[in-house]
């Protein structure tokens, strides 16, 4: 578990994030931080960055990736969007634009500004889902995503690395059938345990 900073009033933190313009000059759709937190959350979905649908709706994982992630986790939308139980915090809080045929990486300015202050609010976490390589590198250091997911048992019960649930994950799952057979049952059971 990383060291926790002193928590500030959560409303002050959320107001500061909502007003953030630190990298607005490079955000193609402008700043709109999208996250879900509360001090009682048991599960943290540590993700990458919002896509365009999420940017427009302001709701984290309100897209096909979210449908896939909820199916992987075995949770209904109501559970997923219950901030008192599930926190959702991407490495970059605003939509970063496109690069090389896909979404650009999370803005590098964002985590140093906000991540420790957000994490200081989340003191009752039992399980952190590291979605994609950016969240995995931040928590576990450098490493290959597929090998890290394959070694998921090494990090339980606190942490579970997962691929990003984008459409690309369908191709990846076909190549790595152990994910559906071994990781998803372990993920569902870890989620149930953390929420119990
Ligand atoms: S991505 Fe992060 S640092 Fe950049 S404007 Fe949004 S909240 Fe601020």
From TrEMBL:
Residues 34-188 form the Uracil-DNA glycosylase-like domain. SMART domains: UDG, UreE_C. InterPro entries: HI_0220.2 (IPR047124), Uracil-DNA_glycosylase-like (IPR005122), Uracil-DNA_glycosylase-like_sf (IPR036895). It comes from the Bacteria. CDD domains: UDG_like. PANTHER family: URACIL-DNA GLYCOSYLASE SUPERFAMILY PROTEIN. This is Uracil-DNA glycosylase.
């Amino acid at each position: 578990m990383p060291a926790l900073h002193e928590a500030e009033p959560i409303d002050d933190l959320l107001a500061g994030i909502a007003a953030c313009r630190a990298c607005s000059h490079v955000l193609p759709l402008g700043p709109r931080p999208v996250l879900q937190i509360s001090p009682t959350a048991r599960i943290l979905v540590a993700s990458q960055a919002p896509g365009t649908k999420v940017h427009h709706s302001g709701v984290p994982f309100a897209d096909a990736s979210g449908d896939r992630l909820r199916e992987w986790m075995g949770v209904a939308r109501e559970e997923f969007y219950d901030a008192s139980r599930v926190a959702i915090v991407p490495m970059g809080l605003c939509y970063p634009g496109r690069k090389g045929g896909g979404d650009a990486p999370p803005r590098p300015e964002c985590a140093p500004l906000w991540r420790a202050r957000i994490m200081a609010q989340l003191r009752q976490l039992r399980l952190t889902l590291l979605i994609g390589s950016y969240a995995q590198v931040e928590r576990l250091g450098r490493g290959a995503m597929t090998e890290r997911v394959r070694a998921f048992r090494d990090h339980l019960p606190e942490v579970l690395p997962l691929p990003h649930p984008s459409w690309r994950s369908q191709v990846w799952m076909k190549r790595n059938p152990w994910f559906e057979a071994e990781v998803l049952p372990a993920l569902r059971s870890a989620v149930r345990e953390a929420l119990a």
